[in-house]
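Q: I'm writing a short explainer about ABC transporter ATP-binding protein for a general audience and would like to include a description of its predicted shape. Could you first generate the structure from this sequence?
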Amino acid sequence: MDPIIRIAGLSKTYDSGHQALKSVDLEIGRGEIFALLGPNGAGKTTLIGIVCGIVRPTEGKVTVDGHDIISGFRQTRGAIGLVPQELTTDAFETVWDTVSFSRGLFGKPRNPALIESLLKQLSLWDKRATKIKELSGGMKRRVMIAKALSHEPRILFLDEPSAGVDVELRRGMWDMVRQLRDQGVTIILTTHYIEEAQEMADRVGVISHGELILVEETQALMAKLGKRELTLKLAEPMTAIPPELAEWPLELRDDGNALLYAFDANAERTGIASLIKRLTDLGIGFKDLATRESSLEDIFVSLVHQEKAA
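A: Of course. Here's the predicted structure. Afterward I'll give you a sentence or two in plain language.
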């Protein structure tokens, strides 16, 4: 991996005494989509703010494309596009003017063709002469993305980009993210839509209480920690699991009308065949069965709970 962002020993303690980040180490590869997941207050936005030069770190070192974020601020900030959570666009400017102005802030020459392309990609072309204050929340979010891309950054931070955005626009947004990645842009995103991170991200990082507790390739994480669940809908409800079934980790669900069995799909023997045989031997009938693979959200919740309990 060719890292475009290197983070080493990064910590941030605010004047209030709150430690938002605790010695974070992370490298993000050039041209990858990296999803940063964590509960509210975990430190995601602080981490993004430091890399983007908005928040000053207490300790540690960050380089962006080989430049230190403090001594090489101009180079690093010019390489980054940021879509923050908060909508901060000037309410009285038109869509075209505010996106064009953002490009000029970075010393880039006028490029009407690029601005037109961005607005069309984000379904904003018909609104190009509309003032920001007249747009819906979802439309304003699109404008923020266009502004972040106006100076052709090599790195794009998307901090909860789908917040307040309808399903159709969200799909279009992620199609654009894929196109940007194909063009070599590095994408770092935070999202509450964990299924999107599962679908989109090459790697996932999980942050909790300011600590990066896991960084893993998405598919490898799913294979390593993902479980499958077998649900058996019983012909007759149970009040308790018989002791004869103790060797299988079973749970009663749905007021005793279903048995849940979690198993490792990659194991040589899943135990399903022997479980069904034992149920038959015991005269326990079932009307239906279904399997479900655990999602990235299941894994995320499990990891955060484990970290809290540690």
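A: For your explainer, you could say: Residues 3-223 form a domain with the Rossmann fold fold (CATH 3.40.50.300).
Q: Perfect, that's easy to follow.
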